[in-house]
Amino acid sequence: MSGSAALEYGFPSTHATNAASVAAWGLYALHHNTTMTPTTKFFLQALCYLYIFSILFGRIYCGMHGFFDVFIGSAIGLILFVFHIHFSDDYNRWVSTESPWNCILVGTFMLIVVRLHPEPADNCPCFEDSVAFAGVIIGADIAMWRYAHNPLSLSDPVPGTTPYSYAQFGLTKSTLRIVLGVFTVFGWRALMKPLLFKLLPPVFRIFERLSLDLPRRYFLKASQYSKIPRLQRDDNVIPAASDIPKLINSVRQRKGRAVSVGPQSAADAYETIAYRREQRQRSLSGSSEKLPSSAVAERSDSPEADAYASTMDSGVSPVEFGFEHSPDGRTEPFPDFYAVDKDEETEQREIFGRLEKVRVRYDVEVVTKLIVYSGIAALAVEWIPILFEYVGLGITQT
Description:
The protein is mainly alpha-helical. It contains 12 helices and 4 strands.
């Protein structure tokens, strides 16, 4: 109902992409499995279909995507699955050659991709999440190249394979490996994030003075802050260890249907306002017909002035409502503001007052995420398997 809905990132649906690729891989693996009973295989295949259907239907049912978003997202996921099946082993062997230049080439390419990543339309974590995944690819490829030349690794099915056999380890040692690996990853992140937040700002200030910095929208430059406070919920990929008990407790306490939390962004808020306006106009007119979009989202004579004044009256930073301060001191308005009369002013303030405040983002967070997630991948691919050998949880110690 509102033009601001276009600002919700919808095309394509990455949920559909992930779900389609994972489900396709699961079905492919089950199809080629010759050890399972037909009943077990049928049950697991049904779970794969249920998984993909629940994700695709859920995105449409919740109003987060349209059919076209989900269809193209699924198509991309299937294309990635086909590439993985046909070329992943060849790619792994290519990265694991004697020369390190292949993995250096991949790492350089990923850094260029991070630099060329488009600026988000609003202050969202989408860029940081992309940086985290890029870091994983860099760290995994470098570690795979190193581990492939380590005598502890296997060359089958691809170089750099971690030796493991459930028949030899059993449930106890397999569980201990998982616990040790997970705690090692969390320990690495808990140590490196605060350390990098202290070490990187002075370096960034030097680059800034030399005009070698690469500023990004919504990120404070190092010259604009003295130190980085303790950041809460700054990672959307892996939750902090301290948050895990809260997440588990939240699931346990939830009974029946989840409670709606209301608008989560400025785009959501303006959609809510448009919907309520339409409902009021329907009630006044006594008509059940849908009103034209012009009646739902009519603009005032000065939308920028009205919207900016409304946000300032509410006592919240304009950035949280889609305004961004440009270098010359002006502000860019959030698109598609609606006319607000005095009867609706209180309602609008109440709706926007429920929005979660957008936290400040710092320039060093980008490099920090690259280093931290590169390290997480390197730990998983190389260093943790080596650690297993030294603590008696490796294949050679069994």
